[in-house]
Amino acid sequence: MARTARRKATIADVAEAAGVSRGTVSRYLNGGRWVSADARAAVGAAIERTGYVASSTARQLRTGRSGTVAFLVDEQPATFFGDPTFEALVASVSDALAVEDMSMVVLLAGSADQARRAVEFLHGGPVAGVVTASIHPTHGTLEKIVDLGIPVVNCGYPRSHAERVSYVMGDEAMGGRLSAEHLLEHGAARLGVIAGPEDTPGGTLRLEAFRRAAGPALLEENVRFGDYTRESGRSLAAELLDADPSIDAIFAASDTMAAGVLDAAAQRGLAVPEDVMVSGFDDASIAREVMPPLTTVRQPFDRISLELVSVLMREISDGYRSAVTVPVELVERASTARV
After folding, report:
1. Phi, psi dihedral angles at 20 (to 5 degrees)
2. Domain 67-170+302-327 adopts which CATH fold?
3. d(Cα 245, Cα 231) in Å, to the nearest integer?
4. pLDDT value for 33
């Protein structure tokens, strides 16, 4: 006789049945701290009704046996390995976890298949928590991790999940504002912007702050959205410079894209910074390696990584959700240093 497969109950099902948030169910499963007596009773009854079975991850969290954290990046391998920002962040998070005597595994989830395999891996229960970075809404990966009840902290503002997910971010708005003010103070009159993807902080928060500070010096037709690669910076800068030759400064939302802007300027015989100033974001290694070296916004990845691990450890231990914003600073180099 054929059997009809029954969908496995999730934390979301338990939360709906109990009339509580998924975070409350997660804290209940992780030992019950910060859960009221009424909520504990409601969740316990809902688990019985839905037939929910806690994953091995939840059991590990309660017993404290897991010593591994996953670092999940929602990007394709080519983007991950080609962006020096990820290299710096992974190394810093790994060092911070080592202080806690914890190991780290890296998961790439840029495609639908990669995202599915990553979630299945996490559902299998080998990790105590997850650090996520460069999350996009395409595959719903972050939401699925939250539904599994695994403690998670996102590097960067998680947009639609900000009320449900702990996060640590560099001050994106501060960085965008400082960049615009710096270019204007150095004589820029017509600005161009190559923002990040429109579903990332580099395509929203940095751009919005830059736009406010730039005022009439930034026309909407002089804004483009890249993908954080050098090639996108080169091709989009070419579009901007060809469409509006009066542009005398370009802000790119990553140093890798800003390096592409330098390429486009050189191809057109434009001197940097005399003909066009260029500034980036992150202070990745490439900012110091290109010629001329890039003015940029320095994100303190060492401090951000320490905060990521600290927030995650607290969420693992007591289910406490946090939001931390770390100040950034502008570093002036030759790409904007007009004499």
Report:
1. -130, 175
2. Rossmann fold (3.40.50)
3. 20
4. 53
State both tokens at 320: 């406490």
What residue has token string 């054929």?
2
Q: How far apart are CA 261 and CA 106, in angstroms?
A: 31
Shortest CA distance to 301 belongs to which of 153, 93, 102, 69? 93
Q: Do 67-170+302-327 and 172-299+331-336 come out as alike in CATH topology? A: yes
- Strand, helix or coil at 279? strand
Of 113, 81, 332, 87, give the one whose Cα is nearest residue 229: 81
Residues contacting 214, CB < 8 A, separation 6+: 180, 183, 184, 191
Kindly provide the b/e burial profile for residues 294-312, where b requires at least 16 CB atoms within 10 angstroms of the residue's own CB: bbbbbbbbebbbbbbbbbb
Domain definitions of the chain by residue range: 11-54, 67-170+302-327, 172-299+331-336
Does CATH number 1.10.260.40 belong to domain 11-54? yes
| Domain 172-299+331-336 belongs in CATH node 1.10.150.120 | no
The mean pLDDT values, 10 residues at a time, for the chain of 339 residues are: 48 85 70 74 89 56 65 84 83 88 90 92 86 84 88 88 87 97 97 93 93 98 95 98 97 97 98 98 95 97 92 84 94 90
User: In Å, how far are 208, 237, 286, 329 from 178, measured between CA atoms?
Assistant: 12, 21, 20, 8
pLDDT at residue number 188: 97
- pTM for this one? 0.76
